Amino acid sequence: MANYRANLMICGGTGCIATGGMKIKDALDKELRERGLENEFKVVITGCNGFCAAGPIMTVYPEGIFYERLKPEDIPLLVEEHLLKGRPVEKLMYKEPEKRHTVPSMNEIPFFNLQVLRALRNKGMIDPESIDEYIARDGYQGAAKALTEMTSEDIYTTMKESGLRGRGGAGFPTGLKWEFCAKVQADEKYILCNGDEGDPGAFMDRSIMEADPHVVLEGMIIAGKAIGATKGHIYVRAEYPLAVERLKLAIKQAKEYGLLGEDILGSGYSLDISLYLGAGAFVCGEETALMRSIEGKRGMPIPRPPFPAVKGLWAKPTVLNNVETFANIPQIILKGADWYRSLGTEKSTGTKVFALTGAVNNIGLIEVPMGMPLRKIIFDIGGGITRGRTFKAVQLGGPSGGCIPEHLLDTPVTYEDITKTGAIVGSGGMVVMDNFNCMVSVAKFFLEFTADESCGKCTPCRVGTRVMLDKVTDITEGRGKPEDIENLQDLSRDIINTSLCGLGQTAPNPVLTTIKYFKDEYDSHINEGWCKAGVCRDLVTFYINEETCTGCGACRRACPAEAIAGDKKIPHRIDQAKCIKCRSCYERCKFKSVLTGPGSLREELLKKEEVKA
Amino acid sequence: MAKLTIDDLKKIKEKHHAAFAVREGGNRAKITVHMGTCGIAAGAREVMDALMDEMSAKGIEDVIVSTSGCAGFCVKEPMATVEVVGEPPVKYQFLNPEKIRKIVNEHIIGGKVVEEYALVVGSETSY
Q1: Whether residues A173 and A284 fall in one domain
Q2: Cα dihedral angle (A329, A334, A338, A343), rounded to 10 degrees?
Q3: Rounded to a whole number, what is the distance in Å from the CA of A110 to chain B's nearest CA?
Q4: Are residues A198 and A293 in the same domain?
Q5: Is the pLDDT reported for residue B25 higher than 60?
Q6: CA neighbor of A83 nearest in space, from A10, A28, A20
Q7: With an 8 Å Cβ cutoff, are A210 and B37 in contact?
Q8: For the residues A327-343, what does the mean pLDDT come to?
Q9: Ramachandran area for residue A101 (φ above 0: left; ψ -120 to 50: alpha; else beta)
């Protein structure tokens, strides 16, 4: 009998065999044979060793090293390190439960460690219905300092030096806006908060209003002092009932503490804030339309100049700021402009909150320093694309924004750099898209929104968005023509140049950016009648590649129309007459065997079936 | 309630830390259920109900139960954060009434983190 250097006892009990014990044996045999070691190490299958939960297990004698939870891919390493070099592989060895796998700490998870919380500093930390908890985290200290130690000029100069830009999307320098208003003489002035957050998919402002309502009030008090406001309003959309409730309570509590009302903190400054509910119009997020809405008029923008800072609500000097902008203000007053500038870039200082959503693994609300590359946000913080799909585009800025493709992912997120791509940073909505999204459909989705929300005042916007929508719809339904692309671009330019407000001025952006970066998709819709992502039902045929199909049946089980025929291990086939183009099979197949073809393919395949029958 | 002065603000801050701090005041732990719209939509109210029920069934009186808004990681809701004296806060994910009861028994009473439900340990950076 040969003298073995070691015995490798692999558990052959039923439990371990069920978890793959024999595959371990096969892998081990193969590896030993390949290295010419089969006469030096003996592989023995033993009976059940009792530790079934840890299987497949292997004990190496004579050392008595116990390996657990083995996988075939662990074997080459194990043979190399332990058997040849005499170094047992720690990570495969049995570990006591406490040492097995501890919960990672925040500084180990990119989702958390890459964020810096400023506007969201109270995120998840306080009870939003307790003003005391807000005060305990330095709440109203900024207002106290601004009201008792600073003049109006001190305040807006600090804001100017901080470089804070409006977080609602336009990115106008906040301090500058305050200065314009402060310098106007008037008996009444207004400080307004824009809580209308209309972008589909954006929820930054909702989160701040629900979770930290007092920071909005504190920001408004400071801004009010800076411009000399006599009254404040928060315009919040009615679709945010929890935010409305929390703000109402916060205002009541602040009033009780004398933090709103007459002579706040004994400073001599008085401010009252009331809540005003929106009524479902996206356009009322635009500042002049918002002010008309508060005045009881139909929400329609008016020409500027005169700017609201000079003549706004009720024709009085008014400053409107976004919720997130206000959330940054108390800290800037307390810690100074230099502190705020210490993050971000020169022209885009500080941090920005994003609502990261779509095809990423880590969906949520994040706050990052300006200047962070998109790639880092999507892949490190966002944890990459779900379901093993590939990145296609990231949509920034909602219906006013644009889609950014893969080759531009190293773009740092700053106002200037993103604008160069044709998109905008916007209010912070960041929707990630994968290879199962059709970019023409995406453009259509946003156009449906803006065409619906157009107030109607300007003909190019009212009619133009509708015409653009009809054209894009034609393209998605097989009626597209080659000249449509140029027509859409011309129409876009006209709408942008002649619309009075931001809605019309930006509505064509999704179309322009998708044409710029995904022209091939428009071309295949128009020229080939083929939606390659499988979204536009008139322009796609699903069929199975019978050479690669393994007959696993996943598609057949997923099909709601019972349109797939096939048996286990036999290539399946889709019955084109029954197929409703729901795409379930395409999404389920793990063998890349469900393919898409142009819409016209359906007829061909049906004819083929007829001929056979 | 009287109108506050600046000193009053500071006093409230100190008093709050004393009463609610997980250290003085005899409280040995604090559990916060995150109830932003994302949490509520995912079932945080049921989690909260189960939590209150289990705490009272087990007669626990020296643990603060609190709510807060969205924790930021919306896809993992319902979430709760457990802070025990002397230990870093632990954030739990994908909770339901059954899991929260287990957390009360194993973490709050037993002192051991329920690793299979835990997302992360620690506090966030803000500066």
Answers
A1: yes
A2: -60
A3: 11
A4: yes
A5: no
A6: A28
A7: yes
A8: 97
A9: beta
The answer to whether residues A329 and A208 belong to one domain is: yes
Domains of chain B, CATH where assigned: 27-121 (3.40.30.10)
Residues of chain B contacting residue A259, judged by C-beta atoms under 8 Å apart: 4
Cα distance from A124 to chain B (closest Cα, Å)?
A: 4
Task: Answer yes or no: do A105 and B120 touch at CB < 8 A.
Answer: yes
Nearest residue, CB atoms, B81 vs list A124, A211, A212: A124
User: Would you say residue A346 lies in a domain?
Assistant: no
How far apart (Å, rounded) are the C-alpha atoms in residues A473 and A443?
10
In A, which residues are within 8 Å of B37 by CB distance? 203, 206-207, 210, 242
Distance CA A338, CA B49 (A): 46
pLDDT of residue A563: 93
Q: Whole-prediction pTM value? A: 0.82
Q: Is the dihedral of CA A348, A353, A355, A361 positive or negative?
A: positive
pLDDT, mean over chain B: 88
For residue B23, give the DSSP letter: B
Average pLDDT of the residues in A296-318: 95
pLDDT for A77-104, tens place per residue? 888 888 888 788 877 887 655 555 567 8
Number of domains comprising chain A: 5
Tell whether A105 is covered by a domain: no
Q: Choose among B105, B27, B120: nearest CA to B66.
A: B27
Nearest CA in chain A to B92: A103
Question: In B, which residues are within 8 Å of A253 by CB distance?
Answer: none
Please indicate, yes or no, whether residues A325 and A227 belong to a single structural domain of this protein. yes
Distance CA A406, CA A291 (A): 40
Q: Which long-range contacts (CB under 8 A, 24 or more apart) does B122-126 make?
A: B122/A105, B122/A106, B122/A107, B122/A112, B122/B88, B122/B89, B123/A106, B123/B88, B123/B89, B124/A106, B124/A112, B124/A115, B124/A117, B124/A123, B125/A113, B125/A115, B125/A116, B125/A117, B126/A116, B126/A117, B126/A118, B126/A120, B126/A121
Chain A residues whose beta carbon lies within 8 Å of the beta carbon of residue B72 = 115, 120, 123-124, 364-366
Q: Cβ–Cβ of A136/B16 closer than 8 Å?
A: yes
Query: Do both A239 and A300 map to the same domain?
Result: yes
| Residue contact B4–A133, C-beta within 8 A | no
**Token pair for A91:** 């990570």
Residue-wise pLDDT for A176-213, tens only, equals: 999 999 999 999 999 999 999 999 989 999 999 999 99
Hey, what amino acid is at B56? Answer: S
CA distance B110 to chain A (A): 15
